Amino acid sequence: MTNEVCTGAQILLKSLVKEGVKEIFGYPGGVILTVYEALYNQKDIKHYLVRHEQAAVHAAEGYARVTGRPGVALVTSGPGACNTVTGIANAYYDGYPIVVFTGQVGLNQIGNDAFQEADVVGITRSCCKHNYLVKDVKDLQRIIKEAFHIATTGKPGPVVVDLPKDILTQKTTFDYPKEVKIAGYNPNYKGHPIQISKALKMLSEAHRPIIISGGGVLTSSAHEELLKVANMLKTPVCHTLMGTGTFPANSELDLGMLGMHGNFWANHAVSHADVIFALGTRFNDRITGCLQRFARDAHVIHVDIDPCSISKNVKADIPIVGDVKNVLEGMISEFEKTNPNIYVEDKNNWLNQIEEWKRNRAVVKSPEGKLSAIDVINKLYEMTKEYDPIVCTEVGQHQMWTAQNFKFNKPRRLVTSGGLGTMGFGFPAAMGACAAYPDKLVLNIAGDGSIQMNIQEMATCADYGFKVINCIIDNGYLGMVRQWQEKLFHEHYSETKISHPDFVKLAEAYGALGIRIEKEEEIEPAIKKAIEAKCPVILDFVTESMEMVYPWVLAGEPLTKVLLSNDC
Amino acid sequence: MTNFHTISILVSNESGVLSRIVDLFSGRGYNIESLTVAPTIDRLFSRVTIVTDGDEAAIEQINKQLNRVVPVIKVADLNIGESVEREIALVKIQVKDEEKSDILRIAEATNSKIIDVTDKTYILQAIGDEKQIQALVEMVRPYSVKEFVRSGKVAISRNSQFSNIKNL
């Protein structure tokens, strides 16, 4: 059976099966119909029909984020393909593996401005890891093999495969390649042993060391090694938004999140450190603040599988190109062999210093009359933690409150758009999580603005019984932008007051459960009902409009200039 | 002072690879001073030579970013270590009878060749490094230059270890 003659469309599906793909998200259209015909005639792959192609890609990314396996999206040419661009860029920025298959007009029509033609390879070139236009059906299986290989190795990312209509009907022998050879693509997984020894020495001798754990720790599943290294070196750990869950929040070495809305003590610890051990992070401006004033006394050890991330923003004194897990394993075995002095007293003094900084907490004033978003999110955390939920978010104030107030002890539990900051990401990503783990409790914490960016997916949820609990922090504003306007633009709330439909009626219209919560005593029963529900849910928490996210380091300010309340 | 670097990039000879490189430069705000591209002896590969400017950190990033492009096989900054570089320029000059001997002298002085002659025009060809080409530009400037075309730079390392793929 291995050398069966198949059409391009059949080869596509057979290749997906070979790659272990069981679920795909998509939307049919003219040129891709042959693939949908092939889908109709098979049982190995489950296709989820979304309501907008952007959602298909976000769902695929959500699936990839929670499982670690590549997510797959399938769309038609032209508008279908163009609608995937935001999703592709989002996966590229945060480094998650997805493969997006786009239909294309026939090879002989390309360039002739045919109906629903778009130069997909050109459009997506700068926002994906790699892309292909298939020009010969004989290349198709090799390209699919390469696409999955590139998407899932090195720093993972999106790969786009553009499929001309005629390729999908042409026939060739199906014989899926066993290995991949790409001359220009050989990611380096093993950190240089000499660099690792140097790093270990520097960390052992450091007086004020700190570890920054980024998304790369999650990607390489290095959380256990990280915990071991932190404990053996008695070094505190803070994390970036993408690194949430890579270090247990219940460890006494945990400093929580750093950066623009990070903890006062985490920001101060990084700023006063003498050695920074940065793992799988790009040193994005949201964590460095003013770059010139970032950790001026620190020596930086930077581990990343992507050489481009090293010394791009912050100059590394000891660069280590490699996979975080490998590097940390190397460091642990080196430590066990050499058993270096770690100067426990210095490290204890440093931890004591950080303890003192921990007194500086954001001042939270509960608003009068209306619900506090922070209280709502805390309640959500308290009531759902026993279920070990997957928590997706959209982008804005609610996202930061979630990152600050949910305690994550495991990786792959927070699903949020970090780099690109895509409103409308959370809801479809939550569908991806539901498809991957149908029995898991999946929350999407959203704002009343961002939920409206992909709200059409309520229909998808209803169709497939994706029980996403949408928890809308409904403050009537695009809250994060409003917050900036309040502080930086003289309270001129230009175009940030935003209306929305009656979310309860909307939920009902889609056959979902909708509950509006306006009083404190209504919070608990509503969450309880949502957990017990057997259908998608919208919880509309009507909250105070003027609540702010603190701590807050204004853009361009140094990390130490942390505002803790409105009075700062 | 602007710091020019000549970057030599060995790539798979496939469609779109030049766009990937050029997009990378424009998308990240790097400058392209000149660019040449042609297949190597083995037509499966092409060589792209880009002259760009930037400080050390920028050049390091350019190198790393180029390496991230999948069809890019090898990147070399030819300013590190010794290399030889050449450009070619063609100049079409409208010549009056009394100027013809001047042009011949310029050709000789700049090591250029006259490769085409009509009753009204001469075409000069100069091959050399940037200074030699610039010398020709300056010398022909007083005359009636009708057209001037110039290639980007091609460069080759003198280092025997540059390419590990034979004959490329």
Q: What is the number of strand segments of chain B?
A: 9
Strand content of chain A: 15-25%
What is the class of the largest domain in chain A in the CATH system?
Alpha Beta
Rg measurement of chain A, Å: 24 Å
What oligomeric state do the depicted chains represent? heterodimer
CATH topology of the largest domain in chain A: Rossmann fold
Shape of chain A, please? globular
Greatest contact between two chains: A-B, 18 and 21 residues
User: Which percent bin holds the helix content of chain A?
Assistant: 25-40%
* Strands ordered across the widest β-sheet of chain A: 3-2-4-5-7-6
| CA distance, first residue to last residue of chain B | 34 Å
Q: Largest sheet of chain A at a glance? A: 6 strands, parallel
What fraction, in percent, of the residue positions of chain B are helical?
Answer: 25-40%
CATH topology type of the largest domain in chain B: Alpha-Beta Plaits
What count of domains describes the coordinates of chain A? 3
H/E topology pattern of chain B: EHEEHEEHEEHEE
**Broad structural category of chain B:** alpha+beta
CATH class of the largest domain in chain B: Alpha Beta
Report strand % of chain B: 35-45%
Mind explaining what this structure looks like?
The complex is a heterodimer of chains A (568) and B (168). Chain A has 568 residues and is an alpha/beta fold. Chain A folds into 3 domains: 7-172, Rossmann fold (3-Layer(aba) Sandwich), CATH 3.40.50.970; 193-357, TPP-binding domain (Rossmann fold), CATH 3.40.50.1220; 373-542, 3-Layer(aba) Sandwich (Rossmann fold). In chain A, the strands form 4 sheets. Chain A has a 6-stranded parallel beta sheet, with helices on both faces. Chain A has a 6-stranded parallel beta sheet with strand order 11-10-9-12-13-14, sandwiched between helices. Chain A is globular, with a radius of gyration of 24 Å. The relative contact order of chain B is 0.21. By secondary structure, chain B is α+β, with helices and mostly antiparallel strands. Chain B folds into 2 domains: 4-81, Alpha-Beta Plaits (2-Layer Sandwich); 84-150, ACT-like. Chain A, domain 2 (Alpha-Beta Plaits, 2-Layer Sandwich), CATH 3.30.70.1150. In chain B, a hairpin with a 5-residue loop joins strand 2 and strand 3 (45-53). In chain B, the strands form 2 sheets. In chain B, strands 5, 6, 7, 8 and 9 form a 5-stranded antiparallel beta sheet that branches. Chain B has a 4-stranded antiparallel beta sheet with strand order 2-3-1-4, covered by helices on one side. Chain B has helices at 17-27, 56-68, 100-109, 130-140; strands at 4-12, 34-39, 45-53, 72-77, 83-94, 113-117, 121-128, 144-150, 154-157. Chain B has 4 helices and 9 strands; from the N terminus they run E-H-E-E-H-E-E-H-E-E-H-E-E. The interface between A and B is medium-sized, with 18 and 21 residues.
